Amino acid sequence: MRHSIWALLLFWCNTVAFAGGEVHEFQLENGMKVIVKEDHRAPIVVSQVWYKVGSSYEHRGITGVSHVLEHMMFKGTEKHPPGEFSRIIAANGGRENAFTGRDYTAYFQTLSKDRLEVSFEMEADRMRNLILLPEEFAKEVEVVKEERRLRTEDKPTSLTYEQFTATAFRSSPYRNPVIGWMNDLDNMEVEDLQAWYQRWYAPNNATLVVAGDVEPKAVFALAKKHFGAFKPEKINGSKPSKEAEQRGVIRVKVRAPAREPYLMMGYKTPAVSTATEEWEPYALEMLAAVLDGGSSARFARSLVRGQEIAVSAGASYSAFSRLSSMLLLDGSPAKGRSIADLESALLAELEQVKNELVSQQELERIQAQVIAGKVYEQDSVFYQAMQIGILETIGLDWRLDDEYVDRLKAVTAEQVQAVAKKYLVEDHLTVAVLEPLPMEMKQPARRAVGGSRGH
Amino acid sequence: MRIWSLSALFIVALLCSSILFAGPKIQTWETATGAKVLFVAAPELPMVDVRVVFDAGGARDGDKPGLAKLTASLLSQGAGDWNADELAERMEGVGASFSTGSERDMAWATVRSLTESKALNTALETLSAVIAKPRFDAADFKRIREAMQIGLRQSEQNPGTVASKAFYAKVFAGHPYASHPGGTQEALSAMVRDDLIRMHSTYYVGRNAVVAIVGAIGREQAEKIATQVTAGLAKGQPAPLLPEVSVATKGVTEQINFPSSQSHIRLGQPGIKRGDPDYFVLYVGNHILGGGGLVSLLVEEVREKRGLSYSVYSYFSPMRQFGPFIMGAQTKNAQAQEALTVMRKTLQDFIDKGPTQEQLHASKQNITGGFPLRIASNRDIVGYLAMLGFYGLPLDYLETFVDKINAVTAEQIRDAFKRRVQPERFTTVVVGNAETASGG
After folding, report:
1. Could you report the predicted ipTM of this complex, rounded to two decimals?
2. Contact between chains at A451 and B251 (C-beta distance less than 8 A)
3. HSE (CB half, 13 Å, CA atoms) of A271?
């Protein structure tokens, strides 16, 4: 008796003491995938429902519909009137929100581990029973327009990015902004949302990711209880879309009220899901890290310090997207330097990567960062769930996340040079420049208001 | 036998549950150089977070706005035997992540490293040099100063930042909190290397420092780390007390014309200090008014009922002295007055009536039920340690947090809001295009 109690207790404490990290995958009969990552460091749980729909599924005229629908998913069902979802989650000590991207729409709650069922009950309800009220839509689409004004219209660098993307992609749906064009938001109707909800929100188009201090089998049973009864739908996926080959450099100018100029450059590149050579996307990730993987990388060392041409200079690439995207460069010139100086300096850095092999020391530094980064990311349960959700939703396998470090470690200096030569070519380049317009406006005479304002 | 088993059960259960629910066990001591250390053992992941904070934020700028931030930025640009390239190479070569920075109250240097001994030792040795032996070389000084000046110009492109700056300038007029930590073009141009050396030798000292450590190490190694990191610091003196913030007797409204499609609204007044006796009461009250994420009175009135703004909020930002109470939103220019009116009315109703029992209950459920989320990661915990140490808050802050929230009553909230939130004394700033506002 004594021994068995001790054994039980030690076992319990051990599972508390060791971060789990094990991933379990289940599938409901209706096709919905359930992926559970154990992490027993803290008594919390993250629950995320990922739908395979986002702005890259949208067509002309309804851009932004995935994101507006995401907002409307908080507006109630037969069972729960508008706003009640959020009140229930709040009353259970939870944090919640949702996000929409090019390739996904996702809803999440973070809760104390004993409240997981609250999340499932609610997500199941709104997966199938959403009520789209015209009067709620009329208000919420105005909120989304305010969001667009905040994030894009009044931010000159965001405006530049939006124009850059819309110009760089000719046939790929990645040309449209996730939040949608203002014209399309102005003309959106509740029927557009109804059709979109009908088309994409079904168990077999969703992945449920749960990470935290939970027992995988119990999570699966709970998922079955709440989502298991739903019938699968026939999902008429969007037609395959591929960017037509670019045949020459594209240049775009964005003139907007601003103080400082800004430069963006992008080269068309494949992603893991579209690459013909499996290693290339990983070599492109290493290439981006050689240029801008921290303060010891080439851009910081040579352009920000060194030559002092840029006040900031960045390079980014992601191997994980549904469609082919770009390797992006961006930056702002240092004092007394021009956009032209910055562009030639960035191009010179690219030439160097094409002409000379990167050093072993650089590759080792990046490997050290990536290996450490894998440990650090375990500090966030949310981030771990997010990695799994993204991979699954763009049509890859979550196990790629476990292979990531090894894939990067396998990349050679020759491969970095090879992808630089193959993809960083002028004919596949788009350049956007923010040209500041004056911001000065006439200011009103200042007035002081005393006493009560009478409210 | 049975009794023994049960008490064993009790002890072990207590041990585990205290790790899980009551907040992490904090150990504290002082280094030989006078720095206060707060440490939590987190054995699960093979990594360590070390954050060193100094009372050396923008509030210490004196008549040189931007000096504290320039100093903190330059720490990573050369220290001890290493120039900026070498410092970056040392940290990143072992996979450590590292940054320095400053706000109004605090300046900090923070590092996260694997526990593997070569990595950890390299990261800590570098951190130690960065805080104690910065070089402030002329070329680095010039480059970082110019970068800050360009950063200032970039921030002038953002109506939200323009609104916040104007708000602090008005609310804290005459106090060190009034000036922006990023400084001004003129002040930055006038700065010389000696200013930085003086700033560093006065404030980057042991008795003005707090070291927060969280990671997979024991007390003995944590002591070694704290000693190593602070070894190069002079003992020095704690920074003198900042002057009290006074609250304006009259309200002020400022319209700043700006070529944007939205107007950014900020209104409020000096609020509370860290350790303020009204802290928990006002925290819960504000959670109901405008702090509770997607559920609050302001969200309900401004966003849900009227669709006026994507984000609308209120918060108390407790600082060493009174930090601000702020309400904020942004809406298309033509609706700025409407949004402002709704925000003011929502606040006034709340001050007059206080919360209902249901609102209070729901709010407490959210705050206390969500307590485990606040301390779920090492990053969360190291942030709390730095805050507790810096502001001298009791070490049982996290342990007693839930009880203190639960003890708050509706009457206390009504009383505290009446005393501490006075709309007739508010500063109101609206940044946007007034021409399209009146035309629309």
Report:
1. 0.93
2. yes
3. 18
